[in-house]
Amino acid sequence: MFLLRSQKLWTVVMILVMSSRVTHSLHFDLHSGRTKCIAEDIKSNSMTVGKYSVDNPHEGHDLPQSHKISVKVTSSSGNAYHHADQVASGQFAFSAVEAGDYMACFSAVDHKPEVTLSIDFEWRTGVQSKSWATVAKKSQVETMEFDVKSLLDTVNSIHEEMFYLREREEEMQDLNRSTNTKMAWLSLLSLFVCIGVAAMQYVHLKTFFEKKKVI
C-alpha cells in the first residue's frame, strides 16, 4: 500500500513538473458572428498572463475590419478581468483572487459573406507566467544562479499545486459523503413509503373482501 501511494505521489509530481514547464499555446479558427471560449483552471493567488493575435490574411496590408475580435476573460463567478472590443491583438495579466475555471471568450464581428479568422492564443499560469529570462538579464546573475532560482520557483509551484489538489480532493470526498448520506436517507424514506402503501393496500383489500363476504 505504501509503495503504491509512493508511486502515485511520484506520478503526480512528474506530471506537475512537466505541466509547470509547458506553455498553453493554441491556434484555432473562428467564424464571423460566432464565439469560442477556452477554460483554464487557476488556483487563487496565481499569476496568469495571456497573449492573442489574429492572423492577417493579406500580409503587407492592414487587417480588415471583418477580422477584428472582442475578447473577455471572466472568472467562474462572472467577474471580468479583461475586456477588449474590435481589436486585432492584445494581452492580459492578473493575479487570480478566486480559484476555479477562468474563461477566455473570443467573439468575431458578424460579416456577410462569412469569413474565417485564424487566432493564435498563448495562456500561461503560475510559474509559466514568470519570465525568468528577463529577471536574469536585469540582474546580470550567473547562469547557475539563474537555473537554481528557476528550479526553486518550479518546486514552490509544485508544492502549492499539491496542497491545492489535496484541498480539492477533500472537497470531493466531503461531497461524496454528503451524497451517500442523502441517498441512504432517501432509500430509507422510500422503504417506509413502500411499507405504508403496502399496509394501506392490505387494509383496503381486507375491508373490500369482508364487505363482499369473501373472507
TrEMBL record:
<keyword id="KW-0812">Transmembrane</keyword>
<dbReference type="Pfam" id="PF01105">
    <property type="entry name" value="EMP24_GP25L"/>
</dbReference>
<feature type="signal peptide">
    <location>
        <begin position="1"/>
        <end position="25"/>
    </location>
</feature>
<keyword id="KW-0732">Signal</keyword>
<keyword id="KW-1133">Transmembrane helix</keyword>
<comment type="similarity">
    <text>Belongs to the EMP24/GP25L family.</text>
</comment>
<feature type="domain" description="GOLD">
    <location>
        <begin position="35"/>
        <end position="150"/>
    </location>
</feature>
<dbReference type="InterPro" id="IPR009038">
    <property type="entry name" value="GOLD_dom"/>
</dbReference>
<keyword id="KW-0472">Membrane</keyword>
<protein>
    <recommendedName>
        <fullName>GOLD domain-containing protein</fullName>
    </recommendedName>
</protein>
<dbReference type="InterPro" id="IPR015720">
    <property type="entry name" value="Emp24-like"/>
</dbReference>
<feature type="transmembrane region" description="Helical">
    <location>
        <begin position="183"/>
        <end position="203"/>
    </location>
</feature>
<keyword id="KW-0175">Coiled coil</keyword>
